[in-house]
């Protein structure tokens, strides 16, 4: 956006009206929440559904008749009838893939009597168009300003800021560099909105209805909203103003791909807003979101059952299930399959690993899969396909080393072999998406005795429907990969444990730049076994689990399992992670972040203190200025991996033991 726009004082920019005594803008000069105007806070409007996608709530309007999603412009333009000459529009949306040529309206301002489109915003597969009516001596005509390839069709949420000032039109996506267009027709200095109506998600007609999800639609008179929104740690969801019903929605922060919470949207479950609706057979399995109390309820039988009462507080933890596993378990992955249920996959040391299904409040054995010293499972999806990849540490019967990707067969209701990938003592798989493309990265731990080998990133080839090698990254005893995004940037962190002589090696953070990952920052680590990224509000943290301090040259002086693990925090200005807190741990192997109500927690897997595997694992609570403070001490034996998950009945933790064939499910009791 032009610097000029930012410098000029707000008042001068707002469309003034020359009244008898003084200049006065027609609207308030604050963000005007257009979406909130059409979706009353009790959510009573017909045909509007609240749905969740990727952990974020939005409205689906397509079932609502256009007139329901409209209101007279006079409601906002209370003082006079002129649209501001300079303004910006902020919209957060998630769009479906549109066929070529199809256009959908996000917003329209229509002069009702003449049925004239005064102002419109619509998009197609390739463009975003801003339309407005301008008038000159020859009469009124419609002007269209088109922005190419905004990249909205990747099934992600995006926040667009359209800023208009005379003949300058600019569009910024996710706080990225704005595309500026200088048009030969300026936006009219005095566009009358007399007798006009705003239509959200349509152009007053049935044709061109918006079929995606919308979370934010705001008009900011007089200024460029990018100044208020950007930079943002969560640029795809940067907020200026969000309707009340969507504020502080229940569920975990969206840094975790929570498949359990994604489920209502994927299956098109219905969420009702407003005051307590009836719950009978007809509403069974439907959700009700109580915006006032911020609670989400599920109709079970004839009762509304609280799914995630946001104000719940963790009181204590109790044992819920002792899960006898095939053998010692090195990793657990909990995931949901839409329409089927909740599952846990265990990576077991001996011949078979297992998949369990949550049935009547317990994990029950569902499928066994032959693995070779399996270390971890990773669940991911590509479109409608559901996959599960296992990291095999050992060779198969024929001495070959493979890690394997399995695919869910909706017909057999089982996972079946999909692709084998040659790996070297694989420890971990991480799945992620960059610019709409799917990737998998493997942590190759060692080849023979050599720990300094490459770990490999694979890219999904939509043509061959297989993963193919894309990039190799040198690692030292790689143990874990963790992917995360900050605004438009994608990061990949590796935990390096051992270089052949020492566990005191650097672990690295890489950033995606022009088609490959490049080194961004290095961290001193001691036998690093896990990276965990998490967000608290706008803050971004990265925690490393240090398992062992050891050096061949100094093994007598320095061979310790009791050492600090470190939490780092991203300083956005400095573009670097800085140490936030040291936490004493005993051969820490995993961190897991979870939230209960409005509180945030970290649990660490402490596995060994140098003498015994019977050590306590600790739950820490986020206490702001104090950082993380130990609140619960849980006796564990050779603790290897923690996972947090939610069901309709409550919130749970599960942990596995690397030293005994027993995993435990713990229930989080709340008050
Ligand atoms: C391993 O790391 C130690 C300590 O950082 C260093 O002294 C040693 O040279 C490294 N060894 C190899 C093989 O890179
Ligand atoms: C890896 O994938 C990226 C993104 O598609 C691509 O730009 C790059 O050329 C690929 N690299 C290799 C070596 O295939
Ligand atoms: C021993 O290990 C600790 C980490 O636990 C490290 O801070 C210290 O520098 C090491 N001492 C020597 C002599 O290498
Ligand atoms: C972030 O980094 C900047 C630039 O180095 C520094 O001035 C600022 O104090 C840091 N902020 C915090 C919270 O540490
Ligand atoms: Ca990982
Ligand atoms: Ca972790
Ligand atoms: Ca874990």
TrEMBL record:
<dbReference type="GO" id="GO:0022405">
    <property type="term" value="P:hair cycle process"/>
</dbReference>
<feature type="repeat" description="EAR">
    <location>
        <begin position="627"/>
        <end position="670"/>
    </location>
</feature>
<dbReference type="InterPro" id="IPR013320">
    <property type="entry name" value="ConA-like_dom_sf"/>
</dbReference>
<feature type="repeat" description="EAR">
    <location>
        <begin position="576"/>
        <end position="624"/>
    </location>
</feature>
<feature type="repeat" description="EAR">
    <location>
        <begin position="466"/>
        <end position="514"/>
    </location>
</feature>
<dbReference type="GO" id="GO:0034505">
    <property type="term" value="P:tooth mineralization"/>
</dbReference>
<feature type="domain" description="Thrombospondin-like N-terminal">
    <location>
        <begin position="62"/>
        <end position="223"/>
    </location>
</feature>
<dbReference type="GO" id="GO:0007219">
    <property type="term" value="P:Notch signaling pathway"/>
</dbReference>
<dbReference type="Pfam" id="PF03736">
    <property type="entry name" value="EPTP"/>
</dbReference>
<feature type="repeat" description="EAR">
    <location>
        <begin position="315"/>
        <end position="360"/>
    </location>
</feature>
<dbReference type="InterPro" id="IPR048287">
    <property type="entry name" value="TSPN-like_N"/>
</dbReference>
<dbReference type="GO" id="GO:0007605">
    <property type="term" value="P:sensory perception of sound"/>
</dbReference>
<keyword id="KW-0732">Signal</keyword>
<dbReference type="InterPro" id="IPR009039">
    <property type="entry name" value="EAR"/>
</dbReference>
<dbReference type="GO" id="GO:0060170">
    <property type="term" value="C:ciliary membrane"/>
</dbReference>
<dbReference type="InterPro" id="IPR005492">
    <property type="entry name" value="EPTP"/>
</dbReference>
<feature type="repeat" description="EAR">
    <location>
        <begin position="414"/>
        <end position="462"/>
    </location>
</feature>
<keyword id="KW-0677">Repeat</keyword>
<protein>
    <submittedName>
        <fullName>Thrombospondin type laminin G domain and EAR repeats</fullName>
    </submittedName>
</protein>
<feature type="repeat" description="EAR">
    <location>
        <begin position="362"/>
        <end position="410"/>
    </location>
</feature>
<dbReference type="GO" id="GO:0009986">
    <property type="term" value="C:cell surface"/>
</dbReference>
<feature type="signal peptide">
    <location>
        <begin position="1"/>
        <end position="20"/>
    </location>
</feature>
<dbReference type="GO" id="GO:0008593">
    <property type="term" value="P:regulation of Notch signaling pathway"/>
</dbReference>
<dbReference type="GO" id="GO:0032420">
    <property type="term" value="C:stereocilium"/>
</dbReference>
<feature type="repeat" description="EAR">
    <location>
        <begin position="516"/>
        <end position="572"/>
    </location>
</feature>
């Amino acid at each position: 956006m032009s610097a000029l726009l930012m410098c000029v004082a707000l008042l001068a920019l707002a469309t003034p009206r020359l009244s008898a005594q003084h200049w006065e803008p027609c609207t308030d000069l604050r963000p005007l929440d257009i979406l909130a105007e059409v979706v009353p806070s009790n959510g009573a409007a017909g045909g509007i559904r609240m749905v969740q996608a990727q952990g974020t709530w939005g409205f689906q309007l397509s079932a609502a008749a256009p007139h329901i999603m409209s209101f007279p412009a006079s409601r906002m333009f209370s003082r006079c009838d002129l649209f501001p000459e300079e303004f910006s529009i902020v919209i957060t949306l998630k769009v479906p893939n549109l066929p070529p040529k199809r256009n959908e309206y996000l917003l329209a301002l229509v002069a009702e009597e003449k049925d004239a489109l005064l102002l419109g915003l619509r998009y197609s597969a390739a463009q975003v168009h801003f339309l407005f009516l301008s008038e000159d001596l020859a009469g009124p005509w419609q002007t269209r300003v088109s922005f190419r390839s905004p990249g909205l069709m990747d099934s992600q949420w995006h926040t667009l800021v359209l800023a208009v000032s005379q003949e300058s039109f600019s569009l910024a996506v996710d706080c990225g560099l704005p595309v500026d267009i200088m048009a030969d027709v300026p936006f009219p200095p005095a566009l009358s909105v007399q007798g006009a109506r705003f239509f959200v998600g349509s152009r007053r007609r049935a044709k061109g209805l918006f079929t995606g999800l919308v979370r934010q639609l705001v008009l900011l008179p007089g200024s460029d909203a990018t100044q208020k929104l950007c930079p943002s740690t969560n640029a795809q969801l940067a907020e200026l103003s969000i309707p009340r019903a969507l504020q502080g929605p229940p569920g975990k922060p969206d840094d975790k791909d929570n498949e359990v919470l994604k489920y209502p949207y994927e299956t098109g479950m219905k969420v009702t807003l407003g005051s307590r609706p009836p719950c009978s057979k007809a509403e069974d399995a439907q959700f009700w979101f109580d915006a006032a109390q911020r609670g989400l309820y599920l109709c079970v039988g004839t009762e509304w059952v609280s799914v995630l009462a946001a104000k719940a507080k963790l009181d204590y933890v109790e044992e819920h299930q002792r899960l006898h596993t095939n053998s010692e378990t090195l990793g657990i992955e909990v995931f949901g399959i839409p329409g089927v249920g909740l599952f846990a996959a265990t990576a077991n040391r001996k011949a078979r690993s297992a998949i369990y299904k949550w049935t009547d409040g317990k994990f029950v054995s569902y499928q066994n899969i032959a693995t070779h010293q399996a270390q971890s499972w990773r669940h991911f999806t590509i479109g409608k396909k559901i996959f599960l990849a296992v990291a095999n540490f050992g060779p198969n019967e024929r001495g070959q080393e493979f890690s394997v990707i399995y695919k869910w067969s909706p017909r057999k209701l089982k996972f079946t072999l999909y692709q084998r990938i040659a790996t070297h003592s694989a420890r971990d798989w991480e799945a992620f998406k960059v610019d709409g493309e799917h990737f998998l990265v493997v942590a190759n731990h060692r080849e023979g005795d050599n720990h300094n080998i490459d770990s490999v990133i694979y890219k999904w080839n939509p043509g061959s429907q297989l993963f193919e090698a894309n990039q190799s990254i040198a690692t030292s005893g790689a143990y874990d990969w963790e992917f995360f995004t900050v605004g438009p940037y994608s990061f990949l962190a590796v935990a390096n444990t051992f270089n052949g002589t020492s566990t005191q090696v650097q672990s690295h953070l890489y950033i995606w730049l022009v088609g490959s990952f490049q080194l961004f920052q290095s961290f001193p680590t001691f036998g690093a076994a896990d990276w965990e990224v998490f967000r608290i509000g706008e803050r971004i943290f990265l925690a490393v689990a240090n398992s062992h301090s050891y050096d061949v040259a100094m093994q007598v002086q320095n061979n310790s399992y009791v050492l600090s693990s470190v939490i780092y925090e991203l300083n956005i200005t400095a573009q670097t992670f800085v140490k936030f807190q040291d936490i004493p741990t005993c051969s820490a192997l995993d961190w897991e972040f979870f939230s209960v109500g409005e509180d945030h927690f970290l649990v660490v897997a402490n596995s060994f203190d140098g003498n015994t595997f019977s050590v306590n694992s600790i739950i820490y609570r986020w206490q702001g200025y104090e950082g993380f403070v130990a609140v619960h001490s849980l006796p564990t034996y050779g603790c290897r991996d923690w996972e947090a998950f939610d069901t309709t009945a409550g919130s749970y933790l599960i942990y596995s033991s690397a030293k005994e064939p027993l995993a435990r499910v713990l229930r989080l009791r709340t008050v």
